[in-house]
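hey so i finally got around to running the thing on that chain from the lab meeting. sorry it took forever, my laptop kept dying and i had to restart like 3 times. anyway pasting the input first so we r on the same page abt which one it is
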Amino acid sequence: MPRPSKPLISRASTVAASIEIIDSEGLDAFSMPRLAKYLGVQAPSLYHHFADKSEILAAVARQIAGAGPMPRRRPGPDWPEFFVTLGLNLRKSILRHRNAAPILMRYLPRDLLIGTYEETAQFLEESGVPVHLHVQILDGMERLTIGAALTEAMRPTGTRAIFPNVDRELQPTLARAISANKLTSKQLFEEMIRSFLHGVMREVPESASEAAELTV
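ok and heres what got predicted. didnt touch it at all, straight out
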């Protein structure tokens, strides 16, 4: 069947419809025929904007990964908090679209939003973070955030317990640790990012850190 001479749908509406299908019916239910039916068009209309299903899924991943606003924070010694906010924004977006979360394992934000990574690298540079640590930070942040959010997204809906299957008699030590923990999943995520970032900086001489603070 030939393509229609004029597009009947927009790229944005196609991506939005794709997300709606995946959110409500699951990733396995998503297909080009299903999407066309959902939009009320013939399948050839989709090819005005996308070459194939893979390109649509990449656009879905870009939409989810870029949905959160870029944090606005002045470069300086508290630069890790910029990344905490950045991670929380991505986590929130992933958890809002749990069924689509696995797509981000295939289409990584670094491949889709390279301009954002340039901005964060500039922020690190302006904050006085040594350049040889930038890739370690950017790579680690993506792995930590997506890994943690995907793990949480894959849990059954409504599951709040961090370790849901602990038996106090069979795993008494772990049970005590869980009882002693006062942090929510979100708070644990925040502290994980802070621990990672401060760990990256552990070998930077104090004089370099102090110099960075003085230049801000």
